[in-house]
Amino acid sequence: MEIYQIRAFVTVARLGNLTRAAEALSLTQPAVTAQIKALEQSLGVALFDRSGGRLALAKAGEMLLPTAESLLVLGAQFKSEAQQLQGSLQGVVELGLPSEKPDFLRLGELAAAITQRLPLIELKTQIQPTAVLAEQVSTGRLPAALTIAAHPPRGVLCLPRRTVRYRIAPPTERAALLKRGGWRGVAQLPGLDGPAVSHTHLRLRDMFERHGLSSRIAMQNDDQANLE
Fold it and tell me: PROSITE patterns, from UniProt (predicted)?
């Protein structure tokens, strides 16, 4: 069963005449007749009643005509959608994602946008700590990554998605002391740090190094989730 055979059946059924159907299809009458007979053989039923020298829909033809018309509509839609995809990017894209998985990155929104705008792209993700992602992208082992960084590695194209502000939340009784002591006072407070390759650790270290200080870490937590 071929789509052109179904088209011939529907055209003859609509026009009720082989000659006019052949003209509409830009075919000869014998060619249209041959297509319909081939379709009937494929389906195992007679679509037209040819008795009495006339051509009329048989009972099976009447029942199958709506489905045949729907198939032609779906075929046209199928072709249209395929034409829209012509020239679209296709292939597999590997994307690194931070194992910390902070909510503000909105990873679900990114995946949905890629699927909608690039339907032929298969997205494969690789979960790694922030520092590892930066190193793999800079060395070419990973083509791209969505990560958190104050200073991206040199030679890496960085497209900022959003700015994130970090705040220091000291105990109430230490607030006045911190206002007087500034960053040096903050550095003297015992702090909780994340894994050495996490964005929390990297941002904390960078923040103090810019002021010529190092933080006083009371506890190094290997589970980033406990800090969020």
Answer: HTH_LYSR
Decide if pLDDT at 226 tops 60.
no
Selection from 54, 48, 59 nearest residue 8 by Cα:
48
3-state helix, strand, coil in the chain (%, to 5): 55, 15, 35
138-178 confidence digits (pLDDT tens) = 888 888 887 777 666 777 788 777 777 767 666 776 667 66
Residue that is last in its domain, among 122, 140, 162: 162
180 alpha carbon, distance to own chain's centre: 51
Question: Residue 61 is part of a domain; what is its CATH number?
Answer: 1.10.10.10
What is the extent of the structural domain holding 17? 3-81
Total tally of structural domains belonging to the chain = 3
User: Would the CA dihedral through 94, 96, 102, 106 be positive or negative?
Assistant: negative
> Which distant-in-sequence residues (6+ apart) come within 8 Å of 91 by Cβ?
120, 121, 122
| Mean local confidence (pLDDT), 105-133 | 79
Residue 139 to residue 137: CA distance in whole angstroms: 5
